[in-house]
């Protein structure tokens, strides 16, 4: 009967009685080869350039941002700690107080539009049309992203909401659609930019803010970013 090959070698001076298995030495050789390849890559590839399939040509910071976006997109549905302020949708109004236009909930000041009465009234119409009972933020103060909710549900445009907006004198909404599947993060300069299909959406101060924004968008299924008062919009919101 054929014998299986003996993957061992004889220790010199053992008189044939000392054989050691060969696989540890093969593994050590492979590890050494990988180490040499890694050192060579570190020494000879351009500094600060990622050499990973799909990331070639990106700086390390940009590659890290891209990988963060890929991981978030592939992750299962997760919860996110949201920063929301609730209000009574039947009690909100746009009022001029001390020469400044504000949206108020009773005696509570919600938003200040300065002398811009038109924006205050338009934002009020949006909040009422979608029955929003909370305004949410990513990273206060001076939040780079805000959005509205009705309970835990994201708003969506319907024939009824369009009728309510038209009745309030607000015509077509100023919205830009995007595909959540193409969301990406670009790191550079003094912050991180959320982009969709190469279109820049929101600039964040750091990666934590940007990651939270992506989680919020995924959680609520947002597909449209809307504005009141562009350029330099006074108010931004998202729709499904």
Give a summary of the structure in a few sentences:
With 240 residues, this protein is α+β, with helices and mostly antiparallel strands. The protein contains five helices and 14 strands. The radius of gyration is 29 Å and the shape is elongated.
How is this structure best described in words?
The protein is an alpha+beta fold and 240 residues long. The protein has a domain at 1-44. Helices cover 30% and strands 29% of the residues. It contains five helices and 14 strands. The strands form five sheets. Strands 3-7-8 form a three-stranded antiparallel β-sheet. The chain is elongated. The termini are far apart. The model has no long low-confidence stretch (mean pLDDT 82).
